[in-house]
Amino acid sequence: MEKSHQHQILVINCGSSSIKFALFELPKGDVVANGLADRVGTADAALDLVVAGHPLQITLAAQDHGNALREIIKALEANLGDRLEITAIGHRIVHGGEFFRSAVRINEAVVKQIDECSKLAPLHNPAHVLGIRTAFECFPGVPQVAVFDTAFHQTLPPHAFLYAIPYEYYETLAVRRYGMHGTSHHFVGMQAAAALGRPFESLSLLTAHLGNGCSVCAIRDGISMDTSMGLTPLEGVMMGTRSGDVDPNLHLFLQENAGLSLEQTTTMLNRKSGLLGVSGVSNDMRAVSAAAASGNARAALAIDLFSYRLAKGMLALAAALDRLDAIVFTGGIGENSAVIRSKTCAHLGILGIQVDDARNAVAGKSSEGIISPASSSGPQVMVIATNEEWMIARSTESLLSEDPPSASS
User: Fold this and answer.
1) Which are the contacts of 293, defined by CB distance < 8 A and separation ≥ 6?
2) Is 409 a domain residue?
3) Rounded to whole angstroms, how far apart are CA atoms 111 and 30?
4) Do the bridges between strand 326-330 and strand 204-210 make them parallel or antiparallel, or are there none, so unpaired?
5) With a threshold of 0.70, does the pTM exceed it?
6) DSSP labels for 136-178?
7) Average per-residue pLDDT in the chain?
8) H-helix or E-strand containing 377?
9) 48 is catalytic
10) Greatest CA span in the chain, whole angstroms?
11) Number of domain units in the chain
């Protein structure tokens, strides 16, 4: 791929019921268009599209991710016309198992391996495969790249990724901890290094990606040494609808005492727990925070539980580091909830963590994202907006620059 002229990279992120996308013009990095197709597969499916700063809302007749992506492409064509010149496509893939340690150019063998990992991410990988096949159908001959959420965590040492169960299950079924949100953790880690004026490879960081899904990562000398999510996205800290860590014997206890099947308990832990389960209000931190401010005791409890378990997860992952230079909050909750940042850091005093209330209130916008006091001699506390789409675009460009498409691709 030539770097001497402008070219467009379309980034596609197929979620379990959504498609998030962005069209970048590189090398400058301008966002030509971006948007979200939400509630895919339901009667309420809709597309929010922004083209050159102008928002549009489009009703979708989307039966699945394939049809939704076709309608997204039609909307881009209708609004951009001959300005739409896609030269490459990058796909965010949630789970790459042990197959993939970095971004790869997509061919049929790669698609089959992504599909094989569906047993590890059944809500996401099938949607990814459908999105890839649809993109090839709509843009034949355009090179496509897969960027994996799990790839950044493939540097975990065996003592961090193995479970203390019979080793044969790792040998035969690849049962191990994989971690997620790797693209986000990698991005904010590099942004933190730039803000601190330090090489990424010289830093020890704890990064917290907090959205509906939440995870923490310990980064030492530029590589992931441990992370909170495991075989699936259920392990780790408390989330929007996921419980995070629970006693492994909970399934049997609920079967014997509440009559719940294995499937019912698994569904409950994934879809009815976390902020939603504890508060009884919502999985959205904004709604839970509003309820807590209005005197809802369970909503206040959910916030306290979320903050404490997040701090506990950070302290556990600090075992993977030889020092701590900074902690970084990102994601919808991490970037926008001053209360969560403050409450979480209050539990981290043993690490020398301090927060400046005034900086925290404005998310550090006036101080390179730093919300710790200027006088603090301890680790910096930072708020950095994640941009997984931009990271995927950069990874796509970098890979294809090293491995330009052949005439037969």
Assistant:
1) none
2) no
3) 29
4) parallel
5) yes
6) HHHSTT--EEEEETTGGGGG--HHHH--SS-THHHHHH--S--
7) 91
8) none
9) no
10) 66
11) 2
Retrieve residue 34's tokens.
């971006």
The tens digit of pLDDT for each residue in 239-274 reads: 999 999 999 999 999 999 999 999 999 999 999 999
pLDDT of residue 407: 34
Q: Considering only CA atoms, which of 276, 252, 281 is closest in space to residue 266?
A: 252
Cα separation, 409 vs 406, in Å, equals 5
Which three-class secondary structure string do you get for 282-303? CCCHHHHHHHHHCCCHHHHHHH
Q: Is the same domain home to 315 and 202?
A: yes
51: helix, strand or coil: strand
Q: How many CB atoms lie within 10 A of CB 342?
A: 15
Q: Which residue reads 């530029």 in tokens?
A: 222
Task: Give the number of other Cβ atoms within 10 Å of residue 150's Cβ.
Answer: 26
Dihedral pair phi/psi, residue 170, rounded to 5°: -75, -40
Q: Sort 256 into a burial class: Cβ within 10 Å, 0-12 / 13-18 / 19+.
A: exposed
Show the beta-strand stretches assigned E in 27-128: 30-38, 46-51, 54-59, 86-93, 104-105
Token match 């990271």: residue?
A: 391
Using the 3D structure, point to which of 148, 183, 208 is the last residue of a domain. Answer: 148
The residue count for the chain: 409
8 Å CB contact between 206 and 310:
no
Q: What is the DSSP string of 54-71?
A: EEEEEE---SSHHHHHHH
As a whole number of Å, the CA-based R_g of the chain is: 21
CB contact set of 387 (below 8 Å; sequence gap of 6+): 187
Query: Residues 81-103: what's their mean pLDDT?
Result: 92
Domain carrying residue 273: 197-387
* Six token digits for residue 42: 């339901």
CATH code of 39's domain: 3.30.420.40
Q: Exactly one of 149, 221, 356, 357 is catalytic; which is it?
A: 149
